[in-house]
């Protein structure tokens, strides 16, 4: 069920733009994006499967591909 650039949901774009400023914990993302725990788990797993987000020591961060998307979406002022 992976989504590609240009087909990302608004929620995934919000997660990406939030992570543009740096890594964050699950709770920090959840509080900022205002999603249920299950919904956020689903979207983060999808972003990880797409190679956009990685997790290290319980902190989520963007991959190189994620940073490219960040630059693209930050120009559109989604946040």
Automatic annotation (TrEMBL):
For this UniProt entry, which residues form the secretion signal? none
Q: Where is the ArnR1-like winged helix-turn-helix domain?
A: 13-75
Query: Would you say which domain of life the source belongs to?
Result: Archaea
Q: What name does this protein carry?
A: ArnR1-like winged helix-turn-helix domain-containing protein
Protein source organism: Candidatus Acidianus copahuensis
């Amino acid at each position: 069920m992976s989504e590609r650039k240009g087909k990302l949901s608004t929620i995934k774009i919000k997660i990406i733009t939030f992570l543009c400023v740096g890594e964050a914990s699950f709770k920090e993302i959840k509080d900022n994006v205002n999603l249920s725990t299950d919904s956020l788990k689903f979207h983060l797993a999808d972003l990880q499967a797409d190679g956009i987000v990685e997790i290290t020591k319980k902190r989520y961060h963007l991959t190189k591909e994620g940073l490219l998307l960040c630059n693209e979406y930050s120009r559109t002022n989604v946040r």
